[in-house]
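Protein modeling request. Please complete all fields; requests missing the sequence field cannot be processed.
Requester role: graduate student
Desired output: 3D structure, token encoding
Chains: 1
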Amino acid sequence: MTALTVLGVIFLIFFLIAIIPVGVRVGYDRSGFSLDIVAAFIKIGILPPKEKKPEEKKPEKKKPDADKSEEEKAEEKPEEEKPEEKQEKPAEHDIGGTVELAMTALRAVGDTLTRLRRKLTVNYIKLRYTSACDDPADAAINYGRAVAAINGLSPFVSKFLRIKKRDYTVLVGFDGGGDRVLLDAQITIRIWEIIYVALGLAPVIKAYLKWSKSGKGKDNGQK
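Delivered output (223 residues):
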């Protein structure tokens, strides 16, 4: 009974770790870009970088050989004999194996991207665009273009990403000051889904090991 309890606790711990969502939060406004790494309720700021306090420089102590000239130091040091470097010949691989590896890699990358697209989740995305040109006519034209672009791209993006919550807003201002863009989005993926996506690269590793062994075998045969 004790062994089953321990196994159950271990399974529960791994299960809880596997379902933890990890990802990034991206923001943009007039002050610039911001980037945070998120894991469950933990958030680690990456951009903008934190300002580091200037370190106080300690006075350098003079070494006893500091007063000597470079010529005197060179005379004191004995010349060391450099060992001859042996140049290893690169292993030669069959062209057919190289082509097979490249094709396997392309297929695996496509499969991995498909898996990633299905598992990524956009928790929320907030996009606000304010058209505020100095000329009211230009501001109205840019407003119409922005509305058309959002209405056209939104269904296209929804086909590739799962978006839980979205907020697209287009405003127009006749007070000038230039266009303004505000973006705030968070994209996450669970840890077990990362493992699932990484499994798509397994054929590449297998093909690379086969390709590497074929090159070593050919190289050993030449010796």
